[in-house]
Write a structure and sequence with these properties.
Oligomer: single chain
Radius of gyration: 17 Å
Largest sheet: none
Order of helices and strands: HHHHHHHHH
Number of domains: 1
Shape: globular
Distance between the termini: 31 Å
Helix content: over 70%
Structural class: mainly alpha
Number of helices: 9
């Protein structure tokens, strides 16, 4: 891969990873509601799950989906139902930060991995990225190089959103403000379904 292509790929990763989307919205909400440390498994699951999805697309999964569009349609609707459930769960989170949320848990490592397969922005990013920057007939080392680049540049963007949520935690001690924040994040998740349901 040429330096110019690496630079272009890096710019794509940074611009797509730092912008709001389901992962970043949920990481920020988790930082607010559970704190940075308790949300680390969620963060790691996002990175590992996205790397698996990216590798799968690079190895030819997108070609399979092109041949079996019904499977992609099933993924879209199952994913939509799951994201609506996540939005409801977020909107109804107990709005108290002064006591630990011992009865509620942030998304775990395996849940965050699984979430990547129903995340519309993740699908758009992976298919677009691999279609644009992976040469036809590329071998495993080239695929892994792009996956590693995505982790090195996209990972800090996820850390930023989780850290931003942790910082906002101090400003949302008022239960009404926290409830408003959680409902807003839930509505943002619902709005993020629009691209998936209109393609």
């Amino acid at each position: 891969m040429t330096p110019a292509l690496l630079m272009a790929a890096s710019l794509f990763i940074l611009s797509s990873s730092i912008t709001p989307g389901p992962n970043n919205t949920m990481l920020m909400a988790s930082g607010v509601n559970f704190g940075f440390r308790r949300s680390l498994r969620h963060l790691l699951g996002v990175q590992v799950g996205f790397a698996i999805l990216l590798s799968s697309v690079g190895l030819g999964l997108h070609a399979v989906l092109d041949r079996v569009p019904q499977f992609y349609a099933l993924l879209r609707y199952l994913g939509s139902a799951y994201m609506l459930w996540m939005a409801w769960k977020l909107a109804t989170t107990r709005a108290v930060l002064t006591e630990p949320l011992v009865t509620q848990q942030p998304m775990g490592f395996w849940g965050a991995i699984a979430f990547q397969w129903v995340n519309p922005k993740a699908w758009v990013m992976t298919v677009t990225f691999m279609s644009t920057y992976l040469a036809p007939g590329a071998q495993l080392p080239q695929i892994l190089l792009l996956v590693l680049l995505f982790l090195l540049l996209g990972g800090p963007c996820s850390v930023f959103w989780l850290g931003f949520g942790q910082a906002m935690r101090r400003l949302l001690q008022n239960p009404r403000h926290l409830r408003l924040f959680n409902v807003t994040m839930a509505l943002t998740l619902v709005a993020s379904l629009y691209p998936m349901l209109t393609v």
